[in-house]
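Batch job 17 of 40 flagged for manual review because the log was empty.
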Amino acid sequence: MEQEGPSREGTDQRADLSLSCCLNGRLSSLPAVLQALDRLLIRAGADDEVRGEVRLMAEEALVNIVSYAFDNDAPNTIHLHCVCTPGEVRLELQDPGRPFNPLDVPPPDLMAPPEQREAGGLGIHLIRALADSVVYDFRQGSNVLTLIRRFACRAAA
């Protein structure tokens, strides 16, 4: 399911850390992927708050892809690639589902009474609020969502 390990890109003394995996397009595959992501973030020096926020962004994006991107119940592959460089996490999710740009979704009206709000829509709102950068592209028949979260590295123990 996953490949985890250092990659030596650039000249920084600290190696970049990466995680690449393919999900089978089922919600049951998410816990293992999120645990692997958390292990990677620990190795990258992210604190509990950053790890929680990145995990929430990844989970919301993956749940939306699994739930809405595909027209049938046939398994579909979702590619996740995460690279941690000192002070930054770059998470890229790619799926062959129908084109959907989450940046086109208007922000929810959080001031409206709950009974007047439409159901759903908070996952995309959370992703936008937590990420320092959200970029969407549709290329070669796939949705590509890139999320970047910057953070201060913890001091090495």
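Reviewer: the log was empty due to a logging misconfiguration, but the result itself is present. Residues 1-14 have pLDDT under 50 and may be disordered. Unflagging and moving on to job 18.
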